[in-house]
Amino acid sequence: MIRPTICVTLSGCSVEEMLADAARATAVGADLCEVRLDKLWVTEKKPDPVEINPVSTNGRRSRPAYVPPEYIPKSLDSVDLAASLAAFKGGIDLPVVMTCRPERQGGFFPGSEEQRILVLQAAIESGVSWVDLEIDIDKKTRAGLTSSTNGKTKIISSAHIDREPESANDIVQEIEDMEGSGEIIKLCYTSSGRNSALKLFEAAWNLRESEINTAIMGIGSGGDWNRIHAPLLSQNLVYSTMESGSHLSSQGRINASDLLIAWEMLEYC
């Protein structure tokens, strides 16, 4: 089996935090880093952990329940985009994917679509290795962004679908409809457990001999199945994180070090 490319989505909402996470990703053996530019326009507020049933029936204290952070929007002029792009270019050793996710696909960018496109254009002009372009971008606008890469910046064509997959065949059809829109096709669904996870797994299995380079995954319970078994499924790209904690599994995410350990234990690599 060929080892898929491991992409670590960098944590943090500032250039400094993302650069520090990139250094950790490099150290564990990641192949690629994803910079979520849209998160530069929010401030992360981490709440105090909340305990559920602090003392159980056997007298032992339970683990604090995970409480997700709150992201507070900032003004558009609070970010010096040119300086940020320069810092990422000079401070990250790995190849980088630049992403600026809109709110309609689960992102944080607070401005208009026109303003977001300018951010993506600036990312491409910075000479970044990869850029993530959502498939639902206006066709003419997307064609302009694609043309501006001049073949130097590769494209991850993405779709984040805020529902569970109806069937494996529907997932495969969605992938095939996106064929040719990027070097890698990224498709992410909501996953709520075994039923969704099996559909995602089956779709990836059915596409394992396809010439389409894919990254198929879920967000939520069971969403990490395709990540863990990516080598078996011939997935080309797997997203991971340097975060750790039991909450990752319920979110469908996985720590990069844990992912490599899992692949070794399963004798995938």
Name the features.
269 residues; alpha/beta; TIM Barrel; eight-stranded parallel sheet; 9 helices
In short:
With 269 residues, the chain is of the alpha/beta class. The protein has a single domain, classed as Alpha-Beta Barrel (TIM Barrel), CATH 3.20.20.70. 33% of the residues lie in helices and 21% in strands.
Description:
- The chain has one domain (5-157, 229-265): TIM Barrel (Alpha-Beta Barrel).
- Strand 9, helix 5 (168-178) and strand 10 (184-190) form a beta-alpha-beta unit.
- The longest helix is centred in the N-terminal third of the chain and has 14 residues, at 15-28.
- The chain is globular, with a radius of gyration of 19 Å.
- The N and C termini lie close together (7 Å).
- 36% of the residues are buried.
- By secondary structure, it is α/β, with parallel strands linked by helices.
- The mean pLDDT is 94.
- It has helices at 15-28, 81-91, 113-125, 139-148, 168-178, 194-206, 225-228, 247-250, 256-265; strands spanning 5-9, 32-36, 42-45, 50-51, 64-65, 70-73, 96-99, 130-134, 154-161, 184-190, 214-219, 237-240.
- Strands 11-10-9-8-7-2-1-12 form an 8-stranded parallel beta sheet.
- Helix 5 (168-178) crosses helix 6.
Q: Judging by the overall fold, what is the CATH architecture?
A: Alpha-Beta Barrel
CATH class: Alpha Beta
SS-derived structural category: alpha/beta
> How many DSSP H or I helices?
9
Number of strands: 12
Please name the CATH topology.
Answer: TIM Barrel
Query: What are the secondary-structure elements, in order, as H or E?
Result: EHEEEEEHEHEHEHEHEHEHH
The oligomeric state of the chains shown is single chain
